[in-house]
């Protein structure tokens, strides 16, 4: 059951990050899920120790969701730098 929650939360986090980074038109639901889950891992590795909260997205928690969205935004900013040489 935890993986299903991780996929749903990752998809929503990736979708919100793609809206913030203005990449929603170029990404489908699969990429939103992938970006959200990788963003959650990135956020928990980098941002959670700095901010003092976070956790697994396998159990829904507002702090973990915020970290997942922030991590996905950072991941999309890195992708934008690599693809276009600038952050939108």
From TrEMBL:
<dbReference type="InterPro" id="IPR007341">
    <property type="entry name" value="Transgly_assoc"/>
</dbReference>
<keyword id="KW-0472">Membrane</keyword>
<feature type="transmembrane region" description="Helical">
    <location>
        <begin position="29"/>
        <end position="50"/>
    </location>
</feature>
<keyword id="KW-1003">Cell membrane</keyword>
<protein>
    <submittedName>
        <fullName>GlsB/YeaQ/YmgE family stress response membrane protein</fullName>
    </submittedName>
</protein>
<feature type="transmembrane region" description="Helical">
    <location>
        <begin position="6"/>
        <end position="22"/>
    </location>
</feature>
<keyword id="KW-1133">Transmembrane helix</keyword>
<dbReference type="Pfam" id="PF04226">
    <property type="entry name" value="Transgly_assoc"/>
</dbReference>
<feature type="transmembrane region" description="Helical">
    <location>
        <begin position="62"/>
        <end position="82"/>
    </location>
</feature>
<keyword id="KW-0812">Transmembrane</keyword>
<dbReference type="GO" id="GO:0005886">
    <property type="term" value="C:plasma membrane"/>
</dbReference>
<comment type="similarity">
    <text>Belongs to the UPF0410 family.</text>
</comment>
């Amino acid at each position: 059951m935890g993986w299903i929650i991780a996929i749903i939360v990752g998809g929503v986090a990736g979708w919100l990050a793609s809206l913030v980074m203005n990449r929603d038109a170029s990404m489908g639901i699969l990429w939103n899920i992938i970006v959200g889950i990788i963003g959650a891992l990135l956020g928990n590795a980098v941002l959670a120790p700095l901010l003092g909260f976070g956790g697994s997205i396998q159990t829904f928690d507002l702090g973990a969701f915020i970290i997942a969205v922030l991590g996905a935004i950072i991941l999309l900013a890195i992708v934008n730098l690599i693809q276009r040489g600038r952050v939108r």
